Amino acid sequence: MNDFYPNIIEEGEPTPKNRFPIVAQLGILGVFMVLIFGSWLVHTSKTLVPLPAPEPDLVTDTNKYPITPQKIEEVSLRAKGAYVWDVKGQRALYSKNADQALPLASITKLMTTLLTYELVSEDNKVSVPLSAILQEGSSGL
């Protein structure tokens, strides 16, 4: 036996024999797997019932009855102002203090994020100065 590396087996030494060989372990495992999944397969094959064919849709033309957005009335909001615009109909569905000039809320943050995503590559590091964080409003930082 080597004194410097005590776990190394030198050439003349006998190798220890496995008491339970790996092939036998895998064989027993395979038998158990076949029994478990085989019983599951037999159990599920008895309970399968064919489903009836789906019926065709009764409404084929959705443009016959177009959905007209209605004007929203009497909504309780905590916000100082709100504006809901129908893009397709090109009209306001709801407005609260529509004539009052208010600062944009999260839309500014969304637009800043969108422009940053489009103009700056993902591996660039950006530092936000303290003066920008201390600006009036909620920076979220």
Question: Topology, please?
Answer:
Blueprint: H1 22-47, E1 82-86, E2 91-96, H2 106-119, H3 130-133
Antiparallel strand pairs: 1-2
Can you describe this structure in just a few lines?
With 141 residues, this protein is of the alpha+beta class. The chain is built from three helices and two strands, in the order H-E-E-H-H.
Question: What report would you give on this structure?
Answer:
The chain starts with 21 loop residues before the first helix and ends in an 8-residue tail after the last helix. The protein is built from three helices and two strands, in the order αββαα. Helices cover 31% and strands 8% of the residues. The longest helix has 26 residues, at 22-47. It is an alpha+beta fold. The protein has a two-stranded antiparallel sheet.
**Into which percent range does the helicity of residues fall?**
25-40%
How many helices does DSSP assign? Answer: 3
Helix/strand structural class: alpha+beta
- Please state the overall shape, judged from the principal axes of the Cα atoms: flat
Q: What's the main sheet like?
A: 2 strands, antiparallel
The parts where pLDDT drops under 50 for at least 5 residues are none
Overall average residue pLDDT:
77
Order of helices and strands: HEEHH
Walk across the major sheet and give the strand order.
Answer: 1-2
Compute the number of strand runs. 2
Strand content: 5-15%
Q: First CA to last CA: what distance?
A: 64 Å
User: What integer value in Å does the Rg equal?
Assistant: 36 Å
